[in-house]
Amino acid sequence: MKAFLIRIILVVFLALFGASVLDVAYPAVPVLFPMVLFSVAVSLSLTRGFMRALPAVIAIGLVCDIASLGRLGLLAAFCAGLAYTVSFLSRRFAVEHGLMMHLFAGVIVGAGSLGFLIAAPWLDGNPISGRTLGSVTWVTVPVTFGIGILMFPITSTVLRRIEDWLAYLDSPNAF
């Protein structure tokens, strides 16, 4: 029960941190908050498998949708799609856990973030906003992929440590 409550607290913290800190601190990089969210979704999918990670991915996406005041379900749908894509491709290409997995997942996170940057204004019902296809330049594409490749290993490591700690809390010998 403690681990479940801690997971809920961490999801709410992720949503509030992303929606209030990342979007305000780095307004020139509008894709930073979704990229952190996509990194968490991809990491969960790779560590747990898609079917076991799907409820957590959808819950995280919905909480982040509520925190970001966007259309409800948009981030959740992108997260679920990325989690399925990375799970499907990692099984097909037999990506091992190591450097290639981090590069592969980072590229998928970057591609999903770039797709979100392009598609979100139209799916949100406001195609005439600050984030349009015209805002995606030749500099945006490699920077997005680079941030995705750098962000995924960090997110994956933090998530793995948190999961190990929560497994310890769930064990009968803890406290």
Layout of secondary structure:
Blueprint: H1 2-25, H2 32-48, H3 50-68, H4 74-93, H5 99-123, H6 140-170
Overall description:
There is one protein chain. The protein contains six helices and no strands. It is mainly alpha-helical and 175 residues long. α2 crosses α5, α2 packs across α6 and α4 packs antiparallel against α5. It is globular, with a radius of gyration of 16 Å.
Structural class: mainly alpha
What integer value in Å does the Rg equal? 16 Å
Helix segment tally: 6
What global shape is seen?
A: globular
Order of helices and strands: HHHHHH
Mean pLDDT: 77
Mind describing the biggest β-sheet? none
User: How many distinct domains?
Assistant: 1
Distance between the ends: 13 Å
The proportion of residues in beta strands is under 5%
Number of β-strand runs:
0
Proportion of residues in helical segments? over 70%
Name the poorly predicted regions: none
Any descriptors?
single chain, mainly alpha, 0% strand
In short:
With 175 residues, the chain is mainly alpha-helical. 78% of the residues lie in helices and 0% in strands.
